[in-house]
Amino acid sequence: MSTVKEGKKKAMEPAVISWRERKDVADKEEEALVKDIEDLRSWTEMIDAMNDEQLKEYLKNRPEELKTEDPKEQAQTKTSMGIMASVLKFHKEDSEDSVRPDV
User: Residue 76 has what DSSP assignment?
Assistant: First the structure.
C-alpha cells in the first residue's frame, strides 16, 4: 500500500519488515528492559541499605546525570496572554457598568 503526500509526485512505500526481524527487535528491547530493571533493583537495594549519613554523602556526591534540576518558571505564551487580556477587558467593562448608574 503506497501513500502519496500532497505536493509530492513520488509515492512513498512503507517499510516492510518480516516477522523474524520484528521478533529480533522485540527481543533486543526486552533484553534492554531486563537490564534496566536489574540496574534499578540493585540501585534501590543499595539506597535501602544506606544509613542517614551515607545517604547525605551520596546526595552530595551523586553523578551529574542523576541530579534534579530546579523547575524554571516559564513565561506565559502569547496565546494565554491574549486570552487573559480578553478576559480582563470584559471584567473591566462589567465593573465599569456596575459603577455607573443608568447611563
Answer: P
